[in-house]
Amino acid sequence: MSGHRHPEAEPNRDAFSPRDVRAFIVENLHLKPAPGLQEIVLYTAHPGSGLSRLRTSDAEDAPPYWAYNWAGGTLLARHILNYPDIVGGRRVLDLGAGSGIVGIVARKCGASLVIAAEIDTNAIAAIGLNAAANGVAIEVTSADVLAGSPPDVDVILAGDVFYNPQLAERVLPFLAASRKAGVDVLIGDPRRQSLPLAALKLVAEYAVPDFGDGSTGQGAIGGVFTLADAG
């Protein structure tokens, strides 16, 4: 997930009706190692993937963030691979799961349960395919978890969820309430403008690639954070 607009912003709405999104993803995206995370393979967009054909007639259809590698998810995934005890034997919520990369890594590192929270139906299809390609099982919820009570999990992993002010205003209270209820919270973000740094505590930093850097090979020094009052 991220706030950048996808380059294929204008859909060809007459070209494709996504009755079989999973088949489209398998046939048109490349299954390859994630940048900076060679342990994980993901179905990833490329110039010939034609992702605009997945867009429906819904004017509010989200761009396919799930088909690209965003820094926040990569940051969390790298941190969990370095410190698998964070999730080992624990129940995990992957908030705004996108491609599912964070949840996939959590399962590979021993999480007893991973629930991916994602409202984009195409992303939900991609999560299932990506999880299968990495040999793990992930549950998915399309509910608006931000509108509910703290989830019955041990850890919330939130990558790239502070990409605009409106979402940040919903995410931060949800994470704060979850932390108060005893849930551990980790946030991955390359310090985007809407990240509420004053409310966070830096845990670790990594240099990771972020979508938008193109073929330059440049990366951002991003952070893994927890809430400032989490100790």
Automatic annotation (TrEMBL):
Gene Ontology BP terms: methylation
InterPro entries hit by this protein: Ribosomal_L11_MeTrfase_PrmA, SAM-dependent_MTases_sf
Keywords: Methyltransferase, Transferase
Pfam family, one: PrmA
GO MF annotation terms: protein-lysine N-methyltransferase activity
Protein name according to UniProt: Methyltransferase
Organism per entry: Rhizobium altiplani
Source lineage: Bacteria, Pseudomonadati, Pseudomonadota, Alphaproteobacteria, Hyphomicrobiales
